[in-house]
Structures are given as C-alpha cells and as structure tokens.
Design goal:
By secondary structure, the protein is of the alpha+beta class. Helices cover 56% and strands 22% of the residues.
C-alpha cells in the first residue's frame, strides 16, 4: 500500500511537470521530445551514481572500490559522498516492503 501511494505520488508530480528527487536513488522528471513540430513529453528516470554502482556490482560496492569511486568523483565531478546515504535509504525501503509482505 505504501509503495502504491509512493508511485502514484511520483507519477502525479511528474505529470504536472515537476521533478521528483529521491536522494541516493535517483530523479524522476519529464523530458520533451520534438518530432514533426509536435512536442511529446515522456517520463524519464535518472539514477544516482551510488544506485548505478550498486546495480553494476550486484551488491554494495567493496570499500576499496567505493573509495576509488569517491576519489574519482571528487577529482572529476561535483563530488560528495552520496553512497552511504543510498544504502541507508535502500535498507529502510527493504525493511518497509518486507514488513508489508509479511503482514499480508
């Protein structure tokens, strides 16, 4: 029930043209595509760096890989340690979903 409400809220906000950012997970937004002079809007998801790493490695990145990634991001991008926050958020989401599934 919580997941359904969350997804409906995200769809409503993106449908209104607003971007929805879930820290450590990613951002949902509209993207406009123009074809034959007609602009069509479609939903777009941009995953966070930490989320992409977790998917690439299949699990939390090893500390040395995470350290190398953070060093790279500090030298080549905006930087910041969003990785640890991602895993905390993902753990909370997993616990909520598990609790809902076991109640049903």
């Amino acid at each position: 029930m919580v997941m359904t409400q969350l997804l409906e809220a995200i769809a409503d906000e993106v449908g209104k043209g607003r971007a929805v950012n879930i820290p450590g997970f990613g951002m949902f937004a509209q993207s406009g595509v123009q074809r034959f002079g007609i602009v069509k809007f479609r939903p777009n998801f941009i995953p966070s760096r930490a989320f992409r790493q977790q998917v690439m490695f299949g699990t939390r990145p090893l500390p040395e890989i995470r350290k190398a990634s953070l060093l790279y991001s500090r030298n080549h991008a905006r930087g910041g340690d969003s990785g640890s926050r991602t895993f905390v958020v993902m753990d909370r989401i997993r616990k909520l979903v598990t609790a809902q599934v076991t109640r049903s």
